[in-house]
């Protein structure tokens, strides 16, 4: 049985204040609905590079630095549930590299994780292009437009 829909935000090993939590919740709910899925429980955990490296090695057997790791905890098809770990250090670096506002980069990472939970992948070039297009589409919707 799926839990009542909810989005929770946590900080682990970082001091970070997410702005516009109410808007982000509504935006994520709308994204999931637009993709014809249901939202269960979603945990978004803001952390540092060290924890993401540890998770990457332990659970994914990857030995690279990453900005986000998504764990799909869905128990039924069509339901989105999971944990999204986001490195605030990588978000800051990405924002500088791409000349984007930091909070927009955080939102991009959030929606990237949500898209993974919706079934989008980014291993091949075509998948990466589709993922980027979906990110840009959802970032262009209100309240961020």
What would you say this structure looks like, in words?
By secondary structure, the protein is an alpha/beta fold. It has one domain: Collagenase (Catalytic Domain), CATH 3.40.390. 47% of the residues lie in helices and 21% in strands. It has helices at 21-34, 49-60, 88-98, 102-117, 125-139; strands at residues 6-11, 38-47, 68-72, 79-87. A four-stranded mixed β-sheet has the order 1-2-4-3, sandwiched between helices. It is globular and about 35 Å long.
Sheet with the most strands, sense and barrel status: 4 strands, mixed
What's the name of the CATH homologous superfamily? Metalloproteases ("zincins"), catalytic domain
Give the H and E element order: EHEHEEHHH
In percent, how much strand structure appears in the residues? 15-25%
- Count the helices. How many? 5
Share of helix, binned: 40-55%
């Amino acid at each position: 049985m799926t839990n009542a829909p909810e989005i929770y935000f946590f900080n682990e090993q970082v001091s970070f204040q997410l702005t516009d939590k109410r808007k982000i919740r509504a935006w994520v709910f709308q994204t999931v609905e637009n993709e014809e899925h249901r939202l269960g429980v979603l945990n978004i955990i803001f952390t540092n590079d060290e924890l993401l490296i540890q998770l990457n090695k332990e659970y994914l057997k990857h030995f690279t630095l990453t900005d986000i790791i998504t764990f799909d905890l869905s128990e039924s098809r069509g339901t989105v549930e999971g944990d999204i770990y986001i490195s605030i250090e990588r978000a800051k670096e990405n924002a500088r590299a791409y000349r984007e506002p930091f909070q927009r980069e955080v939102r991009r990472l959030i929606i990237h994780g949500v898209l993974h939970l919706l079934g989008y992948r980014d291993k091949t070039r075509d998948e990466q292009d589709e993922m980027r297009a979906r990110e840009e589409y959802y970032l262009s919707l209100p309240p961020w437009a």
